[in-house]
Amino acid sequence: MITIKDVEHVAKLARLELTEEEKELYTKQLGDVLKYVDQMNEVDTTNVKPMTQVIDFVNVMREDKVVYEQTKEELMANGPEVEDGFFKVPKIG
Q1: Can you list the positions of beta strands (E) in the chain?
Q2: Cα Rg of the chain, angstroms
Q3: What are the tens digits of pLDDT across the range 16-60?
Q4: Total domain count, the chain
């Protein structure tokens, strides 16, 4: 059961200032959430297989092969400005 003290503690950790009305509201709402979780824990899942995907999906992998390897000169040709073998960029200051 969630108490107002629990809500105050969480609010303090989150650095939130709550009114008395908000504390009461959040105490009820968090209590309702925990009741719902307890209700879900009562469901018999003995014959239910764990799943990671909703649909039966298999990741298709291919071998990672280099088809065309660019030279440094080809890559550097893409830069707007090159100096001493490096891309030259504006100074950030």
Answers
A1: 82-83, 86-87
A2: 29
A3: 999 999 999 999 999 999 999 999 999 999 998 888 778 877 778
A4: 1
CB 2 within 8 A of CB 30: yes
Let me know if residue 79 belongs to a domain.
no
**What mean pLDDT is predicted for residues 57-84?**
87
- Residue 76 within a domain: no
Which residues 6+ apart lie within 8 Å of 7 measured at CB? 18, 23, 26, 27, 30
C-alpha atoms less than 13 angstroms from C-alpha of 82 in its C-beta half-sphere: 11
Rounded to an integer, what distance in angstroms lies between the CA atom of residue 72 and that of residue 66? 16
Examine residue 28 and state whether it is found in any structural domain, yes or no.
yes
Give the CATH number, domain containing residue 20.
Answer: 1.10.20.60
